[in-house]
């Protein structure tokens, strides 16, 4: 049996072959993953990790695909989704969540329980695993602010509990997680009046609707914030608002976003990203760094 047959036999309907990644990314475009599986238990993770290791198959983990652009030619190997691992719990001032729980749901849970520290992350459309991996943040709050520990497994299948102090982190960057798959996380929060937390959450959700082009598929901010500035300001200043390539466009509402406004191919989006970087560098001298992650093969 080859690896796709082994995965199909083991995961049954939780194994999809030649699965279009347009179904699993918020850009809603992207070529096929050779095998797309949903491991849920420790045994299932052990199985898929061992298979990948012994047969030398590339293995990637995806949460909600809200920060990934997949090339039109697709991805070889195995993509593991955490989407079906989504348990959460609250005890005293601690929230724990499995990797595939929605960050926004966890923010809501914390706010309703009168626990402060995550309310400003409301509306970020990622999973807990993705938020930890990227140190997602907004409005001056970051995932690592209240993170206590990460429950993980390494690519050799060894379980690990990583404490925040073991994971050096900064703006949208975490060191020390690259060899691991995040299975869950614990957050330590502060007790506060729940009504004020819910109010903050609602006002953040409202600001997102007001400022972000949520009516189109996107993967949020394309570039990281350069020191002392905003990528969107530089893009705007370079006159690139509304610039388009095929079905991809620099959002008119928020110049930091590229939106898939009309059946964009991944190559349209990638070409536009490169054009924006080139023109911003030419006009302001600043080299924008990509925040979004490119996976698989592109035809440009
Ligand atoms: C409309 C919109 C608004 C956004 N606003 C914000 C914002 O305000 N702030 C912000 O920080 N981001 C924002 N984002 C980007 C995105 O939501 C975050 O980066 C989020 O944390 C990504 O989570 P995800 O589950 O979608 O990760 P994915 O896109 O699925 O994966 C991103 C990376 O994390 C890795 N990963 C995912 N899960 C795991 C895991 N369990 N173990 C190990 N690695 C894993 C993947 O391999 C990949 O390298 C926005 C996106 C959109 C579409």
Would you spell out the secondary-structure blueprint of this structure?
Elements (H helix, E strand, L loop, with lengths): L2 H9 L3 E6 L11 E6 L4 H13 L4 E4 L5 E3 L4 E7 L6 E4 L2 E5 L4 H10 L2 E2 L11 H7 L2 E2 L2 E2 H4 E8 L4 E5 L5 E2 L2 E2 L5 E9 L1 E2 L2 H18 L6 E4 L9 H7 L6 E2 L2 E3 L6 E4 L5 H19 L8 E3 L5
Parallel strand pairs: 2-5, 3-5, 4-21
Antiparallel strand pairs: 1-2, 6-7, 7-15, 8-16, 9-10, 11-12, 11-15, 13-14, 17-20, 18-19, 19-20
Helix pairs in contact: 3-6
The structure holds flavin-adenine dinucleotide.
Q: Provide the spatial order of strands within the biggest beta sheet.
A: 6-7-15-11-12
Based on secondary structure, the structural category is alpha+beta
Q: Major beta sheet, specifics?
A: 5 strands, antiparallel
How many strands? 21
Taking Cα atoms only, what radius of gyration do you get, to the nearest Å?
A: 20 Å
Strand content: 25-35%
* Overall body shape: globular
* Assigned CATH class of the largest domain: Alpha Beta
What order do the SSEs take from the amino end to the carboxyl end, as H and E?
HEEHEEEEEHEHEEHEEEEEEHEHEEEHE
Number of helical regions: 8
N-end to C-end Cα span: 34 Å
Low-pLDDT regions: none
Bound molecules: flavin-adenine dinucleotide
CATH architecture heading of the largest domain: 2-Layer Sandwich
The pLDDT mean sits at 97
Number of domains: 3
**Portion in helices:** 25-40%
